């Protein structure tokens, strides 16, 4: 790896981390706000947590596919 390539990876990791932090914070904020408005203080059930985890894995897969470039079909 060249020094310039390491810098671009570092920038990518920093920007991705900041985007993840902001998205995670907003998701928690909106969840807490909706739960408070609806009187739901039970938290997330196990089945909902699994569904959420699978949805996040799907998003990570889509982001990974962005890095592969256009398909050669």
List its salient traits.
mainly alpha, single chain, 73 residues
Total beta strands? 0
Q: What is the helix tally?
A: 2
The helix/strand class is mainly alpha
> Total domains, how many?
1
The proportion of residues forming helix, as a percent range, comes to over 70%
Unreliable residue stretches = none
- Outline the biggest β-sheet: none
The whole-number mean of residue pLDDT values reads 87
> Per the principal axes of the C-alpha atoms, what is the gross shape?
elongated
- Please report the distance between the alpha carbons of the first and last residues: 30 Å
Radius of gyration: 18 Å
Please report which band the strand proportion falls in: under 5%, 5-15%, 15-25%, 25-35%, 35-45% or over 45%.
under 5%
**From N to C, what is the helix and strand string?**
HH
């Amino acid at each position: 790896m060249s020094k310039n390539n390491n810098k671009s990876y570092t920038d990518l990791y920093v920007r991705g981390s900041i985007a993840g932090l902001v998205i995670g914070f907003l998701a928690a904020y909106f969840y807490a706000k909706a739960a408070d408005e609806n009187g739901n203080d039970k938290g997330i059930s196990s089945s909902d947590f699994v569904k959420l985890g699978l949805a996040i894995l799907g998003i990570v897969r889509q982001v990974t596919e962005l890095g592969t470039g256009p398909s050669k079909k």
